[in-house]
Design a protein that fits this description.
This protein has helices at 8-11, 57-72, 124-131, 178-190, 207-210, 255-266, 274-285, 311-314, 345-348, 351-359, 364-395, 398-407, 409-414, 417-421, 423-428, 431-439, 454-468, 479-487, 492-503, and strands at residues 43-49, 80-83, 154-160, 163-164, 167-168, 176-177, 196-202, 220-224, 233-235, 253-254, 298-301, 342-344. The protein is α/β, with parallel strands linked by helices and 510 residues long. Bound molecules: 2-acetamido-2-deoxy-beta-D-glucopyranose (2 copies).
Length: 510
């Protein structure tokens, strides 16, 4: 399967301002009225929520909802693996114990779900093993199910969580790095572990997982909630248009996820192609083309696969009868998609804390809620300051400064010439360079992955964490800074020194 994939490098957008536009499929690939291929195998699905905690309710809700869609579609229970922290059903904040909802007025998406991996078993290592069909995790409480798909089978992988450049979050242990995911996909492909595979990824900067990483050689097709440079968005949050019932203090869903899930309930998936679903989901996730509250849904990999019906991945009994989760949102053709309220992922987490302050009784309860919110904001501020402090410390090292000057022209543009003669002075006038490194996207050329050397990125994260503490779902955004340093040939040892020095006096240090 080749064709459009070869044009991929050309159309990948390098700016969050530019939506990717897929070229039209050559007409010869499908004859009128003919399905692009006959599907003889089985469907397998791996569904994972990479987060935990009440503030991240929406990710597990999305994943449980996906399970309902697959089951409604007729996909066998034995072929679906669900990985969720499972800390919400009995969560003290849950106003409806035993139930989880993914949209206002929707049905309980936890009904009948027996998650296969929960708690500490939800980690990147187990995920990669399960995906490759390796039964390595045998802890009590896990089903041990894995994706034992064969050469005729189709595999659907869905992930919902926080992300950051080059990484996906996990509720336990290390991040999942793009090169590890791609390595597992390559292994499974080499082992004839599927006919075609489709991945749907909801996470911030999720385009960075596949950009320059997934070509058209493996019969794998992926769509992501956002491009490599932008947030993905939570939705159905308290206080926005289409709010959850007032007893909820957290968002129920994510914009891209509910767009594809509700679309899958609305339409006859035997008729709807993956490409059609992509077009509809892209439109809805853009919030009616405004991108004011929304992101650029992207496509990667073997794009010819998108001519296949969605039913081949989510089940042929999804015929649009709407009975799965009464999914009646999402426009039909010719209508506008609904415009939804939305919040960037990293702000959506704060909502429950902020609402707790609003709703607490005056006096001690409100002061306690306020202190809890303030503590989280303080930690975020400390991470932001540490990233800037570390970058300034790096710039004060002559060898590092020289390497950055050689790699990035703007270092010379932003630092006055006199400062460049003297690396100590450079550190003092380096604020704009620091800011550029820490917060600006620094797009790489189209078709290049985030980082040339993924081991360097892992080592940089390790070096940072040794000095400044574990990167959390907020701090993880600084992987782009680390990647840009790696791409200039800066090593983890320099990071270790700078981070240790910067964070020695910081509350972040472990
Ligand atoms: C892919 O297979 C190789 C060889 O068996 C193995 O060393 C590697 O860890 C696998 N990759 C992943 C991501 O599991
Ligand atoms: C969506 O955008 C179209 C074209 O810009 C506009 O005419 C329409 O009113 C918008 N719909 C909503 C619901 O905002």
């Amino acid at each position: 399967m080749a064709a459009r994939g070869s044009a991929l490098a050309g159309f990948i957008a390098v700016s969050c301002l530019v939506a990717a536009t897929a070229a039209a499929r050559p007409a010869f690939l499908t004859l009128p009225g003919e399905r692009p291929d006959d599907f003889k195998g089985d469907i397998w699905a791996l569904l994972i929520a990479g987060s935990a905690g009440w503030g991240n309710y929406r990710h597990q809700a999305d994943v449980l909802h996906a399970y309902q869609v697959l089951r409604h579609g007729g996909v066998k229970e034995d072929n679906i693996v669900v990985m969720v922290q499972d800390d919400l059903i009995d969560n003290p904040f849950n106003p409806h114990p035993g139930k989880i909802f993914n949209r206002p007025g929707g049905s309980n998406v936890a009904a009948g779900v027996k998650p296969d991996y929960t708690g500490a078993a939800v980690n990147s290592k187990t995920f990669l093993s399960v995906l490759q069909g390796e039964q390595t995790y045998t802890a009590i409480g896990s089903s041990g199910k894995t994706i034992k798909s064969g050469p005729e089978d189709r595999v659907f992988v869905y992930f919902a969580d926080h992300g950051a450049p080059g990484i996906l979050g996990m509720p336990n242990g290390a991040f999942l790095y793009a090169d590890e995911l791609l390595g597992a996909l390559a292994n499974k492909s080499a082992a004839n572990g599927f006919r075609d595979m489709v991945l749907y990824i909801e996470a911030c900067e999720s385009g960075s997982i596949f950009e320059g990483m997934l070509d058209d050689s493996m019969d794998i097709y992926a769509t992501t909630a956002s491009n490599a440079y932008e947030s993905s968005w939570g939705t159905y949050c308290p206080g926005m248009d289409r709010p959850p019932p007032p007893e909820f203090t957290t968002c129920l869903g994510d914009l891209y996820s509910v767009a594809f899930l509700e679309n899958s309930e609305r339409y006859d998936l035997r008729e709807e192609s993956l490409d059609k679903q992509y077009q509809r989901v892209r439109r809805r996730t853009s919030n009616n083309g405004t991108y004011a509250m929304g992101s650029h849904v992207m496509q990667y990999g073997s794009l010819t696969i998108d001519a296949e019906p969605v039913a081949d991945y989510l089940g042929a009994a999804n015929t649009g009868d709407g009975s799965a989760e009464n999914g009646l949102l999402g426009a039909t053709d010719g209508e506008d998609e609904p415009v939804m309220g939305a919040l960037p992922q990293r702000e959506a987490d704060l909502l429950p804390l902020w609402l707790a302050v609003q709703r607490a009784a005056p006096g001690a309860p409100r002061a306690a809620a306020r202190a809890e919110l303030a503590a989280v904001l303080d930690t975020r501020r400390a991470v932001d300051e540490a990233a800037r402090g570390t970058m300034a410390a790096l710039l004060s090292q002559p060898a590092v400064l020289a390497a950055l000057q050689a790699k990035y022209a703007y270092v010379n543009l932003l630092l006055p010439a006199a400062a460049l003669q003297d690396s100590n002075a450079a550190a003092e006038v380096a604020a704009p360079v620091v800011e550029q490194f820490v917060s600006a996207p620094l797009p790489r050329a189209a078709g290049l992955p985030l980082v040339d050397d993924w081991s360097c990125l892992r080592a940089m994260v390790g070096a940072w964490e040794a000095g400044c503490g574990k990167l959390d779902q907020y701090g993880m955004q600084y992987t782009r800074l680390f990647a840009n340093l790696c791409n200039a040939g800066i090593g983890a040892q320099d990071m270790a020194t700078a981070a240790a020095r910067t964070c020695r006096a910081s509350a972040l240090a472990a």
